[in-house]
Predict the structure.
Amino acid sequence: MAKDAIIQLEHLQKQFGNNAVLNDINMAVYPGQTVSIIGASGSGKSTMLRCINRLETPSGGRILFHGQDVQARGFKLADYRARVGMVFQSFNLFNNMTALENCMVGQITVQGVNRQQAKERAMQYLRKVGMEPYIHAKPRQLSGGQKQRVAIARALAMQPEVLLFDEPTSALDPQMVGEVLAVMRALAEEGLTMLVVTHEMAFARDVSDHVIFMADGVIAEEGTPAQLFESPREEKTKQFLSRFLQQ
Amino acid sequence: MAFLRDVYTILVEYYPQLLAGVKNTLLIALTGTVAGLLIGLLTGVVRTAPLSGNPMLRALHKILNAIIAVYVEIFRGTPMMVQAMVIYWGYAFATQGNTLALLPSGILIVSINTGAYMAEIVRGGIISIDRGQFEGAMSIGMSHTQTMLRVIIPQVLRNILPAVSNEFVINIKDTSVLNVIGVTELYYFAGIIKRQNFQTFQTYMVVCVLYFIMTFTITCLLRFVERKLEGKDTYTIFGSQSSSKAQIQIRNGEG
């Protein structure tokens, strides 16, 4: 089983100064899976995701991509990042480019795709997320939900094997949350492999195949959504989910 | 009335000199500002680049940073008039009496001096760009150089344009100090004219107005460029806003 994992974390650790944010994290993401990571703010969810994409450098442990250590000498980081997409809470669209250019620049600079092909591919994904009408808009002219959909299209345009979502809806109002979650739901149904850090419990419960609950820098509990949401074993999990479950 | 007549005479009699002065002043200021901006971009990119993991490159980078820091402090901390004397006569001293051509010397001095200020302006411009822009680029695999060229520098240039305009205007005025080494800019010619007609006030009044016309024109021009760079406020929507071709249909309140 372990061999087939796209991404595998072994004893991952991260410290900021003497503050241990991640402690001995072990997990794996398999092709086609949607894995949700839930937990209180400050529990290390985002840091873990950022370590996977090497936006943060882990302090210890290993991150394997198809069994290859992503921190090994000579590992092609740019290729790896192109194959592991990331969607941020704050969108991080390039402000000096239109929606279309945002989805083209990575293909052209990183993958060496020619302009015409890059444009076609960008259009394909912008259409997919329903942003085709806005291809010539700059990020500052778009709403939060629209920006996030373009950001998803930008990540998809690189045709990644797995997409990491770092609280993609936390900066949005409820209606915009809806439009972004609809896109993510559709992607999950298509079988895209996704690792989603989220505070949207309904999404974690209904869409994911596997849910990880993090607390104080460790994986406190994990399992299928049914296990975790209906019969959590750990006291911490029960406490964290109590507000959501009462609704 | 006598004043206006004097001014008129100065303009008619000395217009070739005045024109040559204006031309050289603009040439030195423009070239110096552009070259200074290039110096600023180069040093700004070097200083904000992440340190390499390779110990050799890392050491080299630190030495380069130190050199840039010393350059910036020295050229910001001394008057350009003194820099002009030191560089021009320093070259003459080192080569036993050879001197550099005047106009290129002037351009060189203004460039180096402006570069020191631009280094700080560009560095400020780069560090004021949201980290998310870097992370967005990194997350799709762009290298630091690609990120700089495609994403960061275009935004930095737009943001620092007001500061760059400011430097340009300062340079138009400050080229006047180059008369100490005899560069034939506008102020130098004013001195020549004054010594011929003994009308100090009238002559410098004319020169004063000429300087103002230059700086004001440049200010207006660059403000226009700034507005152009802002880009259009509007964009064209293609098809209906709720595109029926979208594979994923967005309905309000879903999720």
